[in-house]
Write the structure tokens for this entry.
Amino acid sequence: MRRLLTSLLLALSFCVVHAQETHLFAQRDTCQLYLDIFRAADGSETTFQGQAKPTIIHVFGGGFITGTRNESYFRGWIDQLNREGYNVVTFDYRLGMKGYKVGKGLSGTFKASEQFEYSQQIGVEDLFSAISYLAEHPELGIDTSNMVVAGNSAGAIISLAAVREIANGTARGLPEGFHFKGALSFAGGIISAKGTPKFESAPCPVMLMHGTADKAVAYNKLAGFGRGIWGSSYWARKFKRQGYPYCIYRFKDRTHEVASYHLELWDLEKQFLQENVMLGHTRVVDTVVDDPTLPKRLSISMDDIYNAK
């Protein structure tokens, strides 16, 4: 493991979180994929104004080269969700950039665009496989008709790409009629090597959180000749133009650290889940956040992730 990557990727601690339940959901050629279920705490309130709270399925980050479903860093956030009456599912996905050499600078990034898009796609496939497994095993008690996807960094990229596939009618391997009730994206975007990505119909309610100075996942877009990544600010602008409701929180001068703000932004997430998801309000938020109390962490760039020694 590259020392710099280990220290910079959100200062995550990669020790094991012990889930309440672990299940094998897929067998790939190169690996077995597992999911963990963390149940709502006993005695917690599992409804809000008569509406059942959704299960949160979380997609971890790590640049498509590292990260695990059971990182201890997220345990505080998972515990918060459980206390608030939410079930949480975490899962493995294949790391498509692991062992792949990305050249330095923009030229290296663009040359690797097809591999980046492939990594995004297999992550989406594994997300859909985890959901299908839960749907095929109702004895596990997870209602797949009431799910919110949440992801950070590469996990947010996978989450938004999955939301787009469902909106565009191109999703495969899901229960018939499946759609997310909402999405939480911590410093995400959508990768494409085949032209500017589009939403052909309205997505589920989406909450976007992104630092305006992010050098790892573009805040607006980093694209040329139909290849690149289209970030949160770009999608907020597109959703506004298309009349799709959205919530975006633009963290002034913050970098990729926003990808690690799960627990710090809980109050905003809770409001989104209650108002946009459970009550179905057409609520649009587009605001700049300049909050000195939020933790500052090491800045990280694409070269830091893929070319660290």
Q: What stands out?
A: The longest strand covers residues 21-27. Residues 3-307 form a domain with the Rossmann fold fold (CATH 3.40.50.1820). The chain has one domain: 3-307.
